[in-house]
Design goal:
- With about 180 residues, the protein is α+β, with helices and mostly antiparallel strands.
- Helices cover about 30% and strands about 30% of the residues.
- The chain has four helices and seven strands, in the order H-H-E-E-E-H-E-E-E-E-H.
- It is elongated and about 95 Å long.
């Protein structure tokens, strides 16, 4: 048993062991960074072609549905659907803020209460050539609503977002 030592390791042995462990950790970190370290800072949500969905949605609901005629640079519609006669359209602004429009059959106050519970009527405003009712919701979002005459029945359009009022009114003005 000469030459084998179970006593205290020498300083050189400790330094070599720590170096080997350090290199191993560095390799693991590098591989993980290579595969997972380049994730985008903001999620990439695909745009949807709401103009292609709109005619079918109007046939299904029997209503004239509102949608933006154009969007500012960097904005995109990320969802459009009809569910139980309610038209929904979701838009992301260039700074990733959400603007939603829902259009459903029913009286204005009842529809706003159903879609944005707890909202309180603030006033009426002229946006474009239409009169919209402005509401304040409990979570500090601004909501606009308007009754949209339809071929079979009237619907209520409700637009909600936490973007500034000027931006939201520009969006509302683009709806037709």
């Amino acid at each position: 048993m000469a030459g084998s030592s179970r006593g205290n390791p020498k300083l050189g042995d400790i330094i070599r062991s720590v170096g080997v462990l350090g290199v191993g950790l560095l390799v693991v970190w590098g591989v993980a960074h290579l595969f997972y370290g380049n994730a985008p800072k903001e999620p990439q949500v695909p745009a949807v072609d709401y103009a292609a969905v709109l005619p079918g949605a109007e046939r299904e609901t029997g209503a004239d549905l509102l949608a933006p005629t154009s969007l500012p640079e960097g904005w995109k519609v990320t969802s459009s659907r009809v569910r139980e006669e309610v038209w929904s359209l979701g838009t992301l602004t260039d700074d990733q803020r959400f603007i939603g429009i829902q259009q459903a059959p029913g009286a204005e106050e009842a529809t706003v209460e159903e879609l944005v519970p707890g909202s309180e009527r603030v006033d009426e405003v002229e946006i474009g050539d239409q009169t919209w009712t402005r509401w304040s919701s409990p979570d500090d979002e601004t909501t606009y609503s308007r009754v949209v005459p339809g071929p079979r029945e009237d619907t209520t359009a409700v637009v909600t977002s936490d973007v500034d009022r000027t931006t939201l009114e520009r969006y509302v003005a683009s709806l037709s």
